[in-house]
Design goal:
Elements: H1 4-21, H2 27-63, H3 70-95, E1 105-112, H4 117-137, E2 140-148, E3 154-162, H5 166-170, E4 175-181, E5 192-203, E6 216-221, H6 230-233, E7 237-242, E8 247-251, H7 257-284, E9 300-305, E10 310-313, E11 318-320, H8 323-327, H9 332-358
Parallel strand pairs: 4-9
Antiparallel strand pairs: 1-3, 1-5, 2-3, 4-5, 6-7, 7-8, 9-10, 10-11
Helix pairs in contact: 1-2, 2-3
């Protein structure tokens, strides 16, 4: 049970934020208060409802002593005893520490892995799945770079996804996605296994990651591949190396060197931000037992089996027999919602263990 004092602290802070917003504060302070007010509103409403339910339950218990009110009191107690566990769980979820990156936009990178042409085709399938899912969420997808496969799909594709709660919903997609199907080029009907890797990186604000000129080496060179005369005559491609970490980003999709540099810097910030997040996570929990998957690109997380029409997420042992629906993007929400729910369960359990250890 959540302590009364903790619930009252939530309400006290919510009232304090409201009061401060109504006072004469600087515009930048008002913006920060407005965000906190928005974050606290549902927490405060649930805390108030839970406190009221507890108070009503005590009143109902006292009413049992009055013969004329006893039946009404029992009915009220039955109702409250049914409602309160739901309120308690909702409140526990709202009080879980928030991932500061959850509300950020994301960079999504999909790369063909083992499997040759079939891997490139599968990478294309995955990217279209995320595009469709993003459309259904009302998010905007903007292509940053793409290298097409020899027979279709992508050897590599990178895009930014912008909208509300993007990283919160996509962060569990990082890892190795495996496909089992009969390639169109396979005359013998044999099932092939190939793979693609997905990396979802939170896209930080410029203020979150400051890049010092002294830490960067920027090289320009001629773009390779298709593109007509332009790529043969202009040094438009850009390679940025972050000297302290050795992280390298190449960008050559745009004809403009300036645009290529801007896109490369966007990706560089995201990779540095994620590297720092990973370092902090590692310090907090070496085994990362309280998370659904580590986000490691080398971790096999999901299998798409075409002959059986199923998709299996190995982290939570969930199998859905709706492969076409998931790859079309429409059914992906069911898999993502299950991963989020499992993550919440694990974090609640972890929080309970921490509290027990403090006793």
């Amino acid at each position: 049970m959540i302590p009364q004092e903790q619930l009252r602290k939530v309400l006290d802070r919510f009232e304090a934020v409201q009061s401060e917003m109504n006072s004469d504060v600087a515009p930048e302070k008002f913006v920060a208060l407005s965000k906190e007010f928005s974050d606290l509103q549902s927490v405060a409403e649930t805390a108030q409802a839970l406190l009221q339910a507890r108070s009503d339950l005590e009143d109902a218990k006292e009413m049992l002593a009055d013969p004329e009110m006893a039946e009404m009191a029992r009915e009220e107690m039955t109702r409250l005893n049914g409602d309160m566990p739901k309120l308690e769980r909702t409140m526990q979820l709202l009080l879980l520490p928030k991932d500061a990156a959850d509300e950020l936009n994301s960079i999504i990178e999909v790369r063909a892995g083992t499997g040759g042409d079939e891997a490139s085709l599968f990478a294309g399938d995955l990217f279209r799945m995320y595009q469709r899912y993003a459309d259904l969420q009302g998010w905007k997808v903007e292509l940053i770079s793409a290298a097409s496969g020899d027979v279709g799909g992508f050897k590599e594709v990178v895009a930014s996804v912008r909208g509300k709660g993007v990283f919160a919903k996509l962060k569990f997609e990082s890892g190795v996605h495996r496909v089992q199907r009969v390639p169109t080029t396979e005359s013998g009907g044999r099932i092939h296994t190939s793979a693609a890797t997905v990396a979802v990186l939170p896209e930080p604000e410029e203020v979150d990651i400051k890049l010092e000129d002294k830490d960067l080496r920027i090289d320009v060179f001629r773009a390779s591949g298709a593109g007509g005369q332009h790529v043969n005559t202009t040094d438009s491609a850009v390679r940025i190396t972050h000297l302290p970490t050795g992280i390298v980003v190449n960008q050559q999709d745009e004809k403009s060197q300036h645009k290529n540099k801007a896109k490369a810097m966007l990706i560089m910030r995201a990779r540095l931000f994620e590297a720092e997040r990973s370092r902090v996570d590692q310090e907090r929990s070496e085994a990362r037992k309280d998370q659904v998957g580590s986000g490691d690109r080398s971790e096999r997380i999901r299998t798409y089996n075409f002959p059986q029409g199923r998709v299996t997420d190995h982290r939570i042992n969930l199998t859905l027999h709706k492969l076409d629906n998931i790859l079309a993007g429409d059914g992906l929400h069911e898999m993502i919602d299950a991963l989020i729910a499992e993550d919440e369960v694990r974090r609640l359990a972890s929080m309970g263990e921490d509290e027990a250890g403090d006793v």
